[in-house]
Amino acid sequence: MTRLTWIAPVVFVAVMLGGVGIAQATGAWVTSGNQVVVARQLAADDVKGSMILQQAADGLAVPYAELVALIGPPEGAAVTPTTAFKDLEGLVPGFSLTTFRETLKAYLATRAGTPVPTAATSTGAAGPGDTTSVATPTASSSPTRTAAPQATATGTGDASVKGSMTLRQVADANHLTLSVLVAECGLPADVNADRTLREISDATPGFDVQIVKDAVARLA
Questions:
Q1: Can you tell me whether residue 37 is helix, strand or coil?
Q2: DSSP 31
Q3: Which of residues 135 and 40 earns the better pLDDT score?
Q4: In angstroms, what CA-CA distances link 219 with 23, 112, 153, 184, 212?
Q5: What is the longest distance spanned by two Cα atoms in the chain?
Q6: For the packed helices 97-112 and 209-219, what is the interaxial angle rounded to 10 degrees?
Q7: What is the pLDDT, as a whole number, of residue 151?
Q8: Alpha-carbon distance 117 to 199, whole Å?
């Protein structure tokens, strides 16, 4: 009885470790950075600002080089597998995580063979015979430098708005009333206007710098 008491826990630990080893060997379990990502278990909307590029590539089952090609960093930009998405704004001019998620959705749909709605049909302006399509990245795209994603139909945004700026600085730079800018961004009235946009983005689900850019464009 005494021997069985200590043998059972040892067998349990051995089985668990063996299962993880098999999962890693088959590529179903990937460790990256400080987080564990299950391969092919992420969607475009799951990509967060705190996630590093290699984690996204692992979870999306997308080659790292192709992920970087979608981002389109300029030559010489210090973009590495351990770069977090929230840091790309300072490395890639015009980069927006919200816009990039849409680019990533189109890319993943193309890889999966799913038709991507065209710009004309999505607005109802095209006729039945219109074959115009939206240019989307393909799986065969080489990891070369591509143009940085542009702002989506949510607004043209203001390129002068940076994640390192505070709400107060944005309001002053664009000659706007701070309380009006806060409301236009959909933030609570008591938000700390002296925190940087990047800090507010990390603490507020669904909020990012593009929202502020679009708000400034609407109020300008």
A1: strand
A2: E
A3: 40
A4: 52, 40, 16, 8, 11
A5: 80
A6: 120
A7: 38
A8: 35
Residue-wise pLDDT tens digits, 142-163 = 445 444 444 343 444 455 789 8
Residue spans of the domains in the chain: they are 31-150, 156-220
Could you tell me the CA-to-CA distances from 50 to 3, 82, 85, 101, 202 in Å, in that order? 48, 11, 6, 14, 8
Q: In degrees rounded to 5, what are phi and psi of residue 30?
A: -125, 130
**166 bridge partner residues:** 196
Question: What is the C-alpha to C-alpha distance for residues 155 and 135, in angstroms, rounded to an integer?
Answer: 20
Residue 176 and residue 143: Cα distance in Å, rounded? 41
Q: Is the pLDDT of residue 171 over 80?
A: yes
The helix (run of H) or strand (run of E) holding residue 111 is helix 97-112
Q: What are phi and psi of 120, to 5 degrees?
A: -70, -45
DSSP line for 132-179: -------TT--S---PPPPP-TT----TT--TTSBHHHHHHHTT--HH
φ/ψ region of 103 (left if φ > 0, alpha if ψ in -120 to 50, else beta) reads alpha
Structure tokens at 96: 């927006």
Give the tokens for residue 137. 């990245």
The position carrying tokens 């981002």 is 71
